[in-house]
Design a protein that fits this description.
eight-stranded mixed beta sheet; alpha/beta; 8 strands; 2-enoyl-CoA Hydratase, Chain A, domain 1; 15 helices; 2 domains
Length: about 325
């Protein structure tokens, strides 16, 4: 059963009434309520379309964080074959918030790396809700360097509220690890494609998304700070997160205009959580197209292309 967001309460009521009618018909032989249920379904579909065609930035944040959206693990299982996970940073530990390894995408050998949030209480705790520690970023660096050594394209799937801000993470060099991962993204001489599949939070996302091509799902978000964090700093009031979300220009559509992302991937009606298979298929098609766009480009040109993309961002932002 779909978990409804707070702005979907009226939709939940209509779909609930339709289901109640069907349940009543199943329990009462000879009762025909198909016409009434169909009318409610039509009304619900129309309401869903109306809600999602004009989402505010804050509502997009809510959709991007929806617990039932497909996560990194779901994309890897559906889009990649022969996935062989590689663990550990060869220094401290293995960070379960970051998963990655060797795989095949459309029969092409690649390295895939992503943030994994988990899908139930146990796995969310194990994955630290997708918030990577320094060893997660160092694992990503190790995998990117491996890809560079063997000439394998790198695909990253970004979905994190941000890097873990705990005391232990800071003691082990969180900021240095993020900077090193970002630097490695800029240095490797293989195609690097990144997809924001949910939240792209702060430096924790940039460390994976400093890519030749960046794509975002239609209702994903990508920002230097969460709206709540921004509101707390600017207005000393986390409840002003709606105003902060507007000001941050964190939606896929705004960031396409600013040149931060290169492609917006349409989501199924009502968001990726309502039809995960369709969302995953759309992401797969986009990755294939972006890799094709980068194929045949030599090492120096790939590095130059990536650096130019990010050096030009300020100028594009001012123009917008």
């Amino acid at each position: 059963m779909t978990q409804y967001l707070d702005f979907e309460k009226s939709l939940a009521e209509i779909e609930g009434k339709a289901e109640e009618l069907r349940a009543l018909a199943r329990s009462s032989e000879g009762m025909d309520v198909s016409a009434e249920a169909k009318a409610l379904d039509h009304k619900a579909h129309q309401m869903l379309d109306d809600l999602y065609k004009s989402l505010t930035p804050w509502r997009k944040c809510q959709v991007a964080r929806h617990a039932e959206r497909p996560h990194c693990k779901d994309y890897i299982e559906a889009l990649f074959t022969e996935y062989t996970p590689l663990a550990g940073d060869r220094n401290f530990a293995d960070d379960h918030a970051v998963m990655g390894g060797l795989a095949r995408f459309n029969d092409t050998p690649v390295v895939v790396i992503g943030h994994e949030k988990g899908n139930d209480t146990k796995s969310r705790i194990e994955r630290n809700f997708g918030m990577a520690r320094p060893e997660g970023y160092r694992k990503a660096v190790r995998l990117m360097e491996l890809a560079d050594k063997f000439g394998l394209p790198v695909i990253t799937l970004v979905d994190t509220p941000g890097a873990y801000p705990g005391k232990g993470a800071e003691e082990r060099g969180q900021s240095e690890a993020i900077a090193r991962a970002t630097e490695t993204c800029l240095q490797i001489g293989v195609p690097l494609v990144s997809v924001i599949i949910g939240e792209g939070g702060s430096g924790g996302a940039v460390a994976f998304a400093t890519a030749n091509r960046v794509a975002m799902l239609e209702h994903s978000v990508y920002s230097v700070i969460s709206p709540e964090g921004c509101a707390s700093i600017l207005w000393k009031d986390a409840e002003k997160m709606r105003e902060a979300a507007e000001a941050l220009r964190l939606t896929a559509q705004d960031l396409k205009q600013l040149g931060v992302n290169d492609h917006v991937i349409p989501e199924p009606r009502g968001g990726a959580h309502r039809d995960p298979k369709a969302a995953i298929a759309a992401v797969g098609e986009t990755i294939a197209a972006l890799l094709k766009d980068l194929s045949g480009i030599d090492r120096k040109a790939l590095i130059a292309d990536r650096r130019k993309k990010f050096m030009d961002l300020g100028a594009k932002g001012l123009a917008a």
